Amino acid sequence: MAIGVFDSGVGGLTVHRTLVERFPTADFVYLADQARAPYGGRAGEEIVDLTRAGCERLFEAGANVVVLACNTASAVALRRLQQTWLPGYRKQLGRPVNVLGIIVPTIEAATGLPWEHEAERRGDKIEKLDVIGVFCTVATAGSRVYEIEIDKRRQDLAVFSEACSGLAGMIEQGASREDLRALIQSHADALKTRIGRWPDRAILGCTHYEIVADLFREVLPPGTPLIGQPEAVADALSRYFERHPEYGPGQGGARRFLTTGLPGHQSGLVETFWGEAVKFEAA
Ligand code: DGL
Fold first, then answer.
1. CA 57 to chain centre
2. Which residue out of 42, 68, 208 has the highest number of ligand 1 atoms within 8 Å of its CB and is therefore the one to mutate?
């Protein structure tokens, strides 16, 4: 049995890399839905259907747990799939399978609280002490998931999402760092204008953005902490395997990279991030 990692494209590799470091002997299968990437500008129903198809492909390829290394799929599709599709699909498959998202671990890391914790609602005005900026896709920003879920837990945190339209697609296509930097700069500036000051911390709430995390660091004030999604997901998965040993991944150290798009090598941008050429096979 393997750990499945799913994203619309290459962004999930940022999570995959940290998961491999954390579970070095586990078997992994990665699926990039590059034929349909990017997801961030698509309608909700489409994102649900595409995410379900991606999970099915990963379960067919031997995964027993699929990590949605995609904020857009996690924000828009995960709850629907867990409630309406997964129970019946498990029965059909006749083995335990599960799908885990990226938002819960990120919110736990941002709030310093377990997901189960909800703040007691008080009537009095609460001072917002800390401002978190979330850079994400249009679909993730539209879901308002970070605003809603963080506010339930920490009313002293203010959350501002900045929809970076087109950025994931440019990263997917391997755009030049100059072009990427200019777009990232414009979104950081827009966020600052909206907040009225720089955020105290930031979430790169699209896994593609982690590939160019250094460019976000360049445009944000020096030392602005970035809440790391890959580490948060790896921590959450460790805890999950402790609670659910039945989902424990295999021990063969297998690494497969599948794509619905063109098989072969990825862009130079991805190779620089990955440290070597990463070759995908047809899904
Ligand atoms: N990497 C994904 C995310 O975390 C998807 C980006 C996209 O396909 O637009 O949101």
1. 19
2. 208
**pTM of the full predicted structure?**
0.96
- Residue 66 sits at the vertex; the CA angle it makes with 62 and 72, to the nearest 5 degrees, is 140
Higher pLDDT, 239 or 118: 239
In Å, how far are 24, 39, 106, 200, 220 from 130, measured between CA atoms? 36, 30, 16, 6, 16
Question: Which atom of ligand 1 is nearest to 42's Cα?
Answer: 9
Closest CA to 177 of 225, 229, 213: 213
Please list the residue range(s) of the chain that carry CATH number 3.40.50.1860: 2-104+230-282, 111-227
**Nearest CA to 51 among 74, 25, 34?**
74
CATH 3.40.50.1860 correct for 2-104+230-282: yes
